């Protein structure tokens, strides 16, 4: 064996380990960001379901929470943390609607400073109640 061949013996393994570190960081980071995106989508969908229930059943009914919880039931690792009626600016206009705040458990092995078991995800569903709609056609 020549001296130059002995020096590069573990070079391929070392380069592979270093590049695998970055590859795995990218893959797990992409998975984490995808989980955050799905969490935001589900929170918005739960808020939409609660807002729709408030429009159909009346905002005084307690069915908004039930509707939002039904959306999150299939999503086993998230529960409704907070549900309220709020006003928010959407595309330059003030909109009233339902806000759902849910807590998701991912991020904890990495981010140990998170309070009480997870990341808070906010969802908003706008409510538009039209007064004096005549009951004819599809509105019956």
Describe the 3D structure:
The chain is of the alpha+beta class and 140 residues long. The chain has a domain of 92 residues: 2-Layer Sandwich (Pantoate--beta-alanine Ligase, Chain: A,domain 2). The chain contains 3 helices and 3 strands. Strands 1-2-3 form a 3-stranded antiparallel β-sheet. Helix 2 packs antiparallel against helix 3. The mean pLDDT is 79.
The gist of it:
This protein is α+β, with helices and mostly antiparallel strands and 140 residues long. Helix content is 45%, strand content 23%.
Record the SSE blueprint.
Layout: H1 3-7, H2 11-57, H3 63-73, E1 79-90, E2 93-104, E3 119-126
Antiparallel strand pairs: 1-2, 2-3
Quick one: overall form? elongated
CATH architecture of the domain at 39-130: 2-Layer Sandwich
Average the pLDDT over all residues and give the rounded result.
79
Radius of gyration from CA coordinates:
25 Å
The class by helix and strand makeup works out as alpha+beta
Q: According to CATH, what is the topology of the domain at 39-130?
A: Pantoate--beta-alanine Ligase, Chain: A,domain 2
From the structure above, extract its key features.
alpha+beta; single chain; 140 residues; Pantoate--beta-alanine Ligase, Chain: A,domain 2
